[in-house]
Amino acid sequence: MKRINLWMPVAILICSLMMTGLSSCNDVADNPGNRDAQSRDVGYDVDNVKMVESRDVSIKEILEDIIVDHDDLETDEDLIYTEWGKEQLKDLQDDEQNTASTRAGLDGESGETKMGIKYVTIRYKTIGADGEETELSELIAYDKNAGGNDPTMNPKNLVIGCHCTITSDAERPTNFKKLDFNTDVNMLTLLSSSQKCLVVIPDYEGYGSTSSTAHPYCNRDVTAKQVIDGAKAAVVWFEANVAKLQSDWKTVAVGYSQGGAVAASIPSYYYANNLTGLDVIGAVCGDGPYDPLATLKQYIKEDRLYMPVAPALLLKGMVDTDKQLMALGCTYKDFVTDKFYNTGIFDWLKSKEYATDVIQTKLLEYSAKNGGESGFTMMAMYNNEFKAYIPENIKEGDKNWQLSNGKGVNYCTVDQCFKPEVIEYFKSGTITGDVPEAKLKALEQALEKNSLTYGSWKPSGAYPHAYHFFHSTRDEVVPFCNYESVKAAWGTNLFLGTPFESSYCYLHLGTGANFYVLRVINFTSNILNRKWAPGETK
Q1: What is the CA radius of gyration of the chain?
Q2: Burial status of residue 25 (CB atoms within 10 A of its CB: 0-12, 13-18, 19 or more)
C-alpha cells in the first residue's frame, strides 16, 4: 500500500512551536497585532457572519479515533484507514520523542505536544434555491496555533471542502462534535494541519440552519453560489477574529461523490461569472456526478441500482428546486413507480432522519416483508448468486444472505423505481404511456443543465483552472460515464485525469477511502504548489 506522509510538516511545526513557545496557542484577542496587516477584499460583509460554537481537537485524538472506528477490518476501506492511522500515529509519536529534550516549552501538563485543529461553526447569508435571502451554516477548521505571535502559523491558503451526499441532518459538517473522525468532513479538516490551510465546509442548503427546507441536490449553480459565499464568509470571519491569511493566498476546492461535483463547479462558476476575491486556482474532484443526465441513462442501461437512494435524491433535487419542473406542477409520483414510492423513501428523505446506509437497510427490510410481483423488490447475494430478497425466499435463521452496504451485494432493477415511460424516454427518446411529454422533457433539461460541462465555459488547461479528476472505472453508484462525459467535452488537454483501476477497493465507498487517505493530500498540494499539469495518469 502506498504510504502518504500526511504529517510531513510535523517536525517543522514542532520546531516552530519550540521557538514561539506556548504563546502561539494563545487566543487572538491577546495578540491583536496579527490582524493589522493588509487583507484582501473578498467582497463579503463581515456583519453577515456570526459564530455559533468552537472546539479544539488534538491530532493524536483524531488518529486514535480513526483507528478505533476501523480496527474490526471488515472492509477494504477499514484496512486502508487503520493502516494509515497507525502509520501516522507512529510518525507523530516518533517526532515527539525526537524532540523530547527540548519539549519543556511545548507541552501542557498532559505531556502532549500542542498540535491540533480548531473547529468553528458560523452562519452566513446567501441566496437560497427559491431566490430569496437565507442563512446557511458551515464548519471552519484551522491549525489551533494560528493567531499567535508567529505569523507563519497562520493559514497559507484556503480549501473549500465539499462534503459527500448525506441524507440525515445529523451528518452535517457543523455537527462536528458528534461525527466520527473518519468521515470525509474530518478528513477534509486535516488539510488545515498538513497543508496549513483555512478549511471551510458548508452544510449545503437543506441541512444545519436550513434543515426544514429542501436540499437542492445536484443543482449546480445554486450550490456553487452558496458555497462560494460561504468561503468568503469564512475568510472575513477568520481575518476579523483570528488572524490574516498569509499574503498571496489561493483557493482550491476539494470533494468526493456529490462533493466532487460541487468542488468541480466552484472554478467554473467563479470564472464564468467573473467573480473576484478568492483567487480560485483549481479543484480536486473524486467520483462526482458531473453529468446527472448521463448518470440516469447509465443506470437504465445497466439496469442495476446498487444504491436506489441515489436516483431518488437526483429526482427529488430536480423536482424540488428546478423552476420549470415546479411550474409544470411535477411530483415524484409523475416519474416513479407506485411500489417504489410506497416504500416511504421520499418521506424518509424529507425527514432527514436517516443516513444513506440506514435507508438502504430500510429498503431491504421493506423488500423482505412486501417484495414480489406487486411490491418493491431488492436483489441480494445468496450463496454467490443474486436472488430476490422477498418473503418466500427468506427462511428464519438462514445466514447465507449477504446484506452489507457498500459491497455491491444488493441492488434493485430500474423498473422497480422508474415508470416504464420514463425508462423508455431516457433510453430511446420515445414518448409512451401516461407521463406527459412536457414533464419528461423538463426533467431531461433539468438534468442536462446541471451538468458540469453545460454552457460555453471551459477551463484553459492552465492556471488558474487546474482541475484534477479521480474516478474509479468500476464505481457502482456514480458510474465512470461521468468522468468520460467531462473528458469528451473538455479533453484531457484541459484537465488532469486519473482513472482508478483496481482489483480491490474499487466500489464507491472503498474508492472514497482511497481518495481521502492516499490521494487528496498530494493532489491538493500539487495544485497549490504549481506542480499540476493537464493530461491523464494512472
Answers
A1: 24
A2: buried
Q: Looking at this protein, which amino acid is placed at residue 121?
A: T
Which of these, 324, 361, 535, 308, lies nearest to 446 by C-alpha position? 324
Under 8 Å between Cβ of 252 and 159 = yes
Determine the Cα–Cα distance for residues 523 and 447; give it in Å rounded to an integer: 29
In angstroms, how far is the first alpha carbon of the chain from the final one?
15
Residue type for 183, please?
A: T
Distance CA 515, CA 85 (A): 15
- Residue 335: partners with Cβ closer than 8 Å, 6 or more residues away: 315, 319, 418, 419, 422, 435, 439, 443
Least confident of 3-12, 99-108, 311-320, 471-480: 3-12
Would you give the DSSP letter of residue 416?
G
Quote the CA–CA distance of 99 and 112 in Å, as a whole number.
12
> What is the secondary structure of 367-409 as a DSSP string?
HHHH-SSSS---EEEETTEEEE-SGGG--TT---EE--TTTT-
176/368: higher pLDDT: 368
Claim: this prediction has a pTM higher than 0.85: yes
The β-bridge relationship of strands 379-382 and 251-256 is unpaired
CA distance 85 to 73: 13
Contacts of 313 (CB under 8 A, 6+ apart): 165, 167, 217, 218, 349
The pLDDT > 70 percentage for the chain reads: 87
Backbone angles phi, psi at 78, to 5 degrees: -60, -45
Q: How far apart are CA 396 and CA 285, in angstroms?
A: 44
Dist CA 163 CA 252 (whole Å): 14
Cell of 270: 467563479
Instruction: Report helix, strand or coil for 279.
Output: coil
